[in-house]
Amino acid sequence: MTAAHLTARRAGPLKGVVRAPGDKSISHRALILGAMATGVTEIEGLLEGDDVKRTAAAMAAFGVGVERLGEGRWRVTGKGGFTEPADVVDCGNAGTGVRLIMGAAAGFPLCTTFTGDASLRGRPMNRVLKPLGQMGATWICREGGRLPLTLRGGALKPVAYRLPEPSAQVKSAVLLAGLNADGGVEVIEPEATRDHTERMLRGFGAQVEVTASGAGRRIVLPGGQSLRGASVHVPGDPSSAAFPLVAALITPGSEVTVEGMLMNGLRIGLLDTLGDMGADLAVTNLRDEGGEATADVTARYSELVGVEVPPERAPSMIDEYPILAVAAAFARGPTVMRGIGEMRVKESDRISLMARGLAACGVEVEEEPEGLIVTGGSSVRGGGLVTTHGDHRIAMSHLVLGLASEASVIVDEPGMIATSFPGFVELMRGLGAEIS
Q: Which of 339, 311, 321 lies closest to 397, judged by CA?
């Protein structure tokens, strides 16, 4: 095999204590809000993956002081506004980054051109552009709202926007734009999505009103507010912690603890689902870090059973369905995952790629337009060469599959893993995994 592939093989049990990299969602937001604020923002535990580094570079391009002080330690010196970038802002593969940055940039009277890698240029931006357009922003882009895209902002009007589908990215883009809209903004979400933006806005001194609205919420951000620099501690990313935890659950004799994992109630749907499947999970040392609940989570090898995942749980675990599908492959009976159409417009069509990858490894799987049904058993044949289309979560999920399969599993384009989990291979090897 060439360096363009990674191979995971069955080995002994996984043992050890690790810390997941900083939460990706919170890392993006810390940099952007720090850049929009006046004064100094000190960040601890920032995820130093490729996606977040692109956001840091974008903030610097808007004339903000951004410096790395040490591992995970960054300082952002904001001046309460952005200046027009001298060049195109390249967001790489960062879908969250570009959507949130477009929202932030829309509030200022400047013109910005955004681009990204081939994967990001293929992802539609219309869901973010629609509310920004209602507020008064204008743009020129490729068909379907795809990058490259030139956005002109400033002089934004207030808006009361109801999200057509649950999306923390769209909600956050509207709120960030609303900081500089005349009269503020209101967002109504049909289902509650991750609330890091609301929490962090308060940490930076903004007033945010959140009330329940049926199964969802109503978020009001009054106008005329300014942010001030703050200290931010980034907890461990539950989406990244999911990989060593599930690896322990499916590998006989294993016991792995992930320290300092984010336990925000809108981000732990995977833990709830694994618990429904009979997983031996222990949550200890629950504490508050920087306004977010964190804890240490221990996973021990378990005999899992298939379940039907409640569709309303999808917003709290949308990035974890690929690794859930791996757990389902080793569970007795079918695991039904529906209401997950959002997965088709991530870095790749994750429903299709997971179905193909699992099938190549001998797993019984059925693909639906907005769902996936995996029928598992006590063993998985493995032996597949998995095409990842450069999607980091597809790559890591299938590598975890290979750690417990009868035959090794090979994934292509593993370099993209660094977008969200730099050091993934080294961390897993430290637990006893055989990945080469």
A: 321
Q: Do domains 5-22+235-435 and 24-233 have the same CATH topology?
A: yes
**Amino acid code (one letter) for 402:** G
- Reported as a single tens digit per residue, the pLDDT across 38-51 is 999 999 999 999 99
Say how many residues make up the chain: 436
> How many other C-beta atoms can be found within 10 angstroms of the C-beta atom of residue 253?
12
Strands (DSSP E) contained in 30-180 are 38-44, 65-70, 73-79, 89-90, 111-115, 138-142, 146-152, 159-162
Marked catalytic residue, from 23, 117, 319, 391: 319
The packing angle between helices 126-135 and 168-178, to 10°, is 20
CATH class label, 24-233: alpha beta
Query: Exposed e or buried b for every residue in 121-139, given b needs 16+ CB within 10 A?
Result: ebbebebbbebbeebbbeb
Contacts with 420 (C-beta within 8 Å, 6 or more apart), sequence order: 21, 24, 47, 49, 51, 237, 239, 240, 392, 393
Q: pLDDT tens digit string along 73-113?
A: 999 999 999 999 999 999 999 999 999 999 999 999 999 99
DSSP reduced 3-state for 67: strand
Q: How far apart are CA 359 and CA 348, in angstroms?
A: 18
**What is the identity of the amino acid at 339?**
G
Strand order in the sheet with 89-90: 89-90, 111-115, 146-152, 138-142
Q: Is 50 a catalytic residue?
A: no
pTM equals 0.89
> 5-22+235-435 adopts what CATH topology?
UDP-n-acetylglucosamine1-carboxyvinyl-transferase; Chain (3.65.10)
- Distance (Å, rounded) from C-alpha 138 to C-alpha 132? 8
Query: What's the rounded mean pLDDT across residues 317-340?
Result: 97
The string of DSSP codes covering 150-173 is EEE--SBPPEEEE-SS--HHHHHH
Please report which helix (H) or strand (E) contains residue 324, including its range. helix 321-329
| pLDDT higher than 80, residue 3 | no
Going from N- to C-terminal start, the domains of the chain cover 5-22+235-435, 24-233
Percent helix, strand, coil in the chain, to 5, is 35, 30, 35
Instruction: Please compute Rg for the chain using Cα positions.
Output: 21
Tokens of 285: 């040392």
Could you give the count of Cα atoms lying within 13 Å of 68 in the half-sphere of its Cβ? 11
